[in-house]
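Revision sheet: structure tokens.
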Amino acid sequence: MSRLPTRRVAPRATPARRPRKETPIWPEKTRPLRVLIWDDRPASARRCAARLEAAGFRCKTAHAATKPEFQKLLTSSGWELLLCADAFLGEDPAALVREAGVPAPLLYFVRAGERGGKTPSPARQAEALRAGAADYLLPEDWDRLPCVIERALRLGRLEEAHQRADAARAGAERRLQTVLDHNPDILLVIQAVTGTILRANRAVQNLLGYQEEELAGRHFSALFPLENEPAVGDLMARFRVRGGVFEGQRFLCVDGSVRPLDVTAEIVAWGQTQAILVTLHDAEARESLERQAFWNGHSAARCLDPLLWTEADGLICHLNEAACRLLGYRPEELLGRPLAEIDPGFGAGLWPLHWEEVKARGRFLLTTRLKRKEGDSLAVEAEVLHLRHNGRDYHCLLARTPESA
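Predicted:
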């Protein structure tokens, strides 16, 4: 039986591998690496520069032999790498670099032939790294110089980016603090999840009596009276869900008194999380403006006749210029004074009865005599109206003299 001829198959050619493209250690080939060397031996400094060039770095180097020279050179054009001989570790070069604000990495190196050929102790190397050095080069470590510098440069750029971010954040915080301090309303930054007060402005001392730092870290409920604390959870829930909130609340002052304030809240970004910016506005100031507008609105049609406004306690809370001219007083002399001082007919015994009667009837006509500042009295025909605004009752007394009637 004849054997069939075998067919030889040529081995398949293995494709040539492409050489791996390595990332250059110093990618900015268009300009040299700026290096500052602190070494009191010029020959040793020149060897450092030569080793950098041999490792593939095109460098622009400067040499400092003493501490004052090093400090002076640090303040010149931005350095990207700092090399310091191990002999100067006691001068704390890392602290000098931090004081100068130079973000470049710092490498310590041991000069060849130093320390009797002995390797520095691990404690000394650890001391250098704790002081802020990026690495510590022994004489036999110069072969790994490219890797050391690459790592140090990356760390230096990362540190520079962190410094820029910290400076930007500090600037933003200063601007925010300026806004907070110059706002007459209380501004509170509250952590959205926990309800902890993160920051408060100076107005909290003017309106509630607390120091700014006294509130930091405390819960928002600390600003409410004990009987209102259960409602704080519901208020915080509405802050988180609805964001924008406007309502009135009673807040606890540092002396134990209670003050009504208007509350406005909105969700804001705060670092990596969210916070609630709460504005507390003096409700008394707002109500005072509203009352003034209310009084002026009801007095506009009769601005030529004397008008006196009183509350349930019988004290004068508002009057117009015609009333001042008629009675001979300045406004500040009558505001807050009892109406009985200018109309004895409304004494302490009769005023409650008069108040309830006018409140029930809405309008009341009477003839009375008003005492002037000079001591004489003047007969007037008075129309007393009962008016209500924002839950508060007022009586408006419109006086007409026989001459004006």
